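User: Here's a chain of 273 residues. Predict its fold as tokens.
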Amino acid sequence: MRVGRIPYINCYPVYGAIDRGIVPLDATLVDGVPSKLNALTAAGDLDVSVVSAVEYAANAERYLLLPDLAITSDGPVRSVMLFSRRPAPDLGAARVLLSRSSMTSVALLKLLFEHVWRATPDFAAADAELADRDALEREPHEARLVIGDAALHLAAAHRYPFVYDLGEEWKRWTGLPFVFAVWVSQRSTPVSDALRVHARLIESRDWGLAHLDELAEQAALATGVARRVCAAYLSGLDYRLSYAHLAGLTDFFRRLAEAGQVPNGSLAFLPAA
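Assistant: Prediction complete.
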């Protein structure tokens, strides 16, 4: 079994106990940014993986969702941010750089520009995913979408006068939580194998949620972000997939389907043992 893992600190609560040997996982872990894991999973190279929510919507016929496991926020997410030199409604025709790492964040940003901010920027893929000043200055832009640990760094630097948290913007717009990533298994993966991995991931997640202070310390050492910021970040995320989360997920998919960006499908879950 090959299991995908995002190396960002937002996955620490799900994999922390596995990494420490507290929860055994008889599988090979494969690290990658969301876009890389999306591609590996779509190619059938991973049996179970965390993927962007949009990857599931685009290829739902290939996958089964793992129940009660996701990366979500009910309001601010803190690691999916639009940093801008002017207000978002004033970015019409302005150059907005998009992260190459996350399909879901890009899709959400475009929905917000169309339906909330009512602006049509000139979108371009960012050459750099780093939050350092040199990388920013090399790429002309009025705003940029930054995700993951880099977003935490850039938010702390206060380089942009206007900062938009996409989880918070979605909540303000729809009143619903937002699901950024889900865990899936291939439909071709034996159900018994996928269930074993799922059980270990849930067990590890439950340990992680009970040890967020320890994980925040690890996150601070790994990223250089202040421990209190890491603690606030991790405690603000939710790793379940409840009815409320599913309502947010299906509303997001509905909007994408209406725009012709994903097929108009349905959710399918890994069956219980």
